[in-house]
């Protein structure tokens, strides 16, 4: 597992919590920040997946 995958997963989880807190309190700004963090986390996980795939391809 690449470090980008772990960092992306953490950012995605943090975004989910922020988004849920924003919805629960009616804070649209917090909800939007959470959604943005989730997207950034998913992108970072994807980058980690690509790096893993490239490393595996170079081994074979």
TrEMBL record:
Coiled coil: none annotated. Residues 1-60 are annotated as: Disordered. Residues 4-56 form the CsbD-like domain. Residues 1-40 have a biased composition (Basic and acidic residues). InterPro entries: CsbD, UPF0337_stress_rsp, YjbJ_sf. Gene3D superfamilies: YjbJ. Belongs to the UPF0337 (CsbD) family. This is CsbD family protein. It comes from Phenylobacterium hankyongense. The lineage of its organism: Bacteria, Pseudomonadati, Pseudomonadota, Alphaproteobacteria, Caulobacterales.
């Amino acid at each position: 597992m690449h470090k980008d995958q772990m960092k992306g997963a953490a950012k995605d989880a943090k975004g989910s919590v922020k988004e849920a807190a924003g919805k629960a309190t009616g804070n649209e700004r917090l909800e939007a920040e959470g959604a943005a963090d989730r997207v950034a986390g998913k992108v970072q996980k994807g980058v980690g997946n690509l790096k893993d795939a490239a490393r595996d391809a170079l081994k074979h």
